[in-house]
Records
---
Amino acid sequence: MSDNRECEDFSVFNIVISIVFQTSLKLNITKHGILMQTNNLTKKYLLDYSREEVYTFVQALGMEPYRGNQIFKGMYVQLLSDFTNLTTLTRSSRDKLNHTVTLRTLKLKEQTASVNDDTIKFLWSLYDGLKIESVIIYEGRRVTFCISSQVGCALDCKFCTTGKMGFLRNLSSGEIVEQVLLMKQKAKRPATNIVFMGMGEPLLNLKNVLKASYILADPEGLAFSQKRITISTSGIAPAIRKLTDSGAPFSLAVSLNAVFDDSREKIMPVSKNFPLNLLMESVRYYISKTKKRVTFEYILIRGKNDTKRDADQLIKLTRDIPCKINLIPCNSDDPEFPPSTTEITQWFADYLHERGRTTIVRLRKGWEIKAACGQLYADNETKIGKKISHNIKEKMGESS
Ligand code: SAH
Ligand code: SF4
């Protein structure tokens, strides 16, 4: 399919998504981030600001330019939750900052640990009362922070619990960054990886996801390794191209989960809009431009996508693509989506491996506390978000 067609598809998709977004956006999320209304005082949420924006803001408050860097380091190296203890500043500057800005909007509602303490799940309440989850996973020397990019998700993948929430709103870049800051203060060891594999479709909140990732990687702040930040997508092909064109240095994971259009459409409605040929074209584009390899996530669902025919097609689809394949036995309470047996999982992994594909079977970490992939869910009481569960082109009255 031509690029034009692809852009057209994406713009229709964007229209639907933006209608969804607009109906659920709160007025106090502005173009420049979140404004917090506290005691008749409107505070700015400084985690929404890049380092350069912090510098500009500090000068606008009448402080000397070099104070900007002290403040940024206070936020990301000292992990301050307000400016009271930033003693390099005068008392009046600290008071002024505390009156004007806030550094925390997430409140911890619940913290749950797995039996052997290797997975910790956090339920946060946001400034508007909506809730999200994030997870820390300890796996040998690897410490992964799994973070959310949206409240819920519109894409309605049939095996995913987050999909059942629908989409409630995008997270601001600061809300994404704050998940990492708060987990950093709680973690037993520093994070080695940050993955956008919590709630939401990161490529439908690309601007904030990229801004947050750049802030996390800022050498004057947390200085997190760029390539160890992974953005995972269900396969929004035009957004993969957009991400590529942006030149962002972060890693990409694509949740493939099925290798034939008909079976993929059944479990991932979004693929009706972006079928496998478009998706794989966009992945090839990403690889040719970035020279990086991509990770494919492949959930193994018993009898649905774990046959020799599926394995052969997966080999075929990834033939010319430098990649790593993560196999994840499906985590679901739904009897429709049982995990493949241990024997089949091992067979599938060996089959791919023997044919030259780097393949890793991901353990079902945090299964018992519902912290494993696809199990994140926050009960937002009566609020059920919007879902895109049909072919969007049909929905818009267009022929496909
Ligand atoms: N929306 C993005 C990122 C969040 S989902 C995406 O889909 O990639 C993060 C990962 O969880 C994806 O790889 C997704 O395929 C996986 N996942 C969702 N439901 C799952 C389930 N029931 N069992 C195992 N993995 C699941
Ligand atoms: Fe959304 Fe990803 Fe879950 Fe699909 S798997 S519903 S895209 S969070």
Note: The first helix runs from residue 3 to 24.
---
Amino acid sequence: MAQEVRGVIAPGKNQPVRVETIVVPDPGPGEAVVKVQACGVCHTDLHYKQGGINDDFPFLLGHEAAGVVEAVGDGVSEVAPGDFVILNWRAVCGQCRACLRGRPQYCFATHNAKQKMTLTDGTELSPALGIGAFAEKTLVAAGQCTKVDPAVSPAVAGLLGCGVMAGIGAAINTGRVGRGDSVAVIGCGGVGDAAIAGSRLAGAARIIAVDIDDRKLQTALTMGATHTVNSRTTDPVEAIRELTGGFGADVVIEAVGRPETYEQAFYARDLAGTVVLVGVPTPEMKLELPLLDVFGRGGALKSSWYGDCLPSRDFPMLVDLHLQGRLDLAAFVTETIGLGDVEKAFERMHEGDVLRSVVVF
Ligand code: APR
Ligand code: ZN
Ligand code: ZN
């Protein structure tokens, strides 16, 4: 039987979000209902609310979540009721061209639930990133549930479902940071800090954190940065070159998503270095670079979408490393809040002292 639970809805462009009763159908074939235990507040949720993603209001927000599978539909074999899972927005299809070429991180037919969750009057909801987890329960495709060790705290585990995975993956998957590498990370919010933590995990020898906010640089040091540069007062390209013997960093990770910071990343890399863009630009932004400078260097200019992650490979591995004490994921949880506090958490995002607010149930 369909269930009624509480969830956070974005009713229309720039309107405050509110908690409403939502209807969660029983799982159909290939689907699962998950009892959500924790869900982080991500910038993408705010972008949905602002109408920056699309106009399919009302949205059921929330997508960085962990919980326990409550029920599964026909044909579901990968998870069972009682499993502790992190929700992902890359349930790969296994059949598209990208999947068949062995590059499932580029899958363009990822699975979401087929049925719709609704308001009590029948209005269909658009779940953020196909998840919608600021809700006591949510309906997803079974492939969106990735089983991990239940010893991890749900508030910590959920963060791997989006922003923290994006940052760690930008370093270890896209940037291929390796032992002894020099890395610079521009923008030390949740994503940039995760890139720093990922670089440390991968054995980077030097990790240079760049931000315009000294508080962010302090936190970056606790995540594994070996040096900091405040780019409001210091030219970051020169500083990064100076800290890398004049060469530039082997990997520069741009975690802001702006043309000027991308340009800094471009010029702060070694001649054969890699730039990874993980910050998300807005549609009107343009990049202008001398083509000769693009030609004049080797290396690679890459973008990282969701950290090029494969949830089935990366989530359990990162949870295990966390449980072994080798990756401090708990440091990303600044505060835990209730379902009714999401609007306030959006406001706090601009204050700059929160890495992640996490709704716990
Ligand atoms: N130079 C350096 N750092 C900057 C600049 C700049 N010009 N502008 C902003 N920053 C810093 C901020 O001070 C902050 O520490 O970038 C950081 C951004 O962090 P958050 O706002 O917390 O964002 P985060 O969640 O880390 O996401 C970063 O990745 O996933 C995308 O949409 C997301 O584009 C965003 C980016
Ligand atoms: Zn595919
Ligand atoms: Zn997100």
Note: The mean pLDDT is 97.
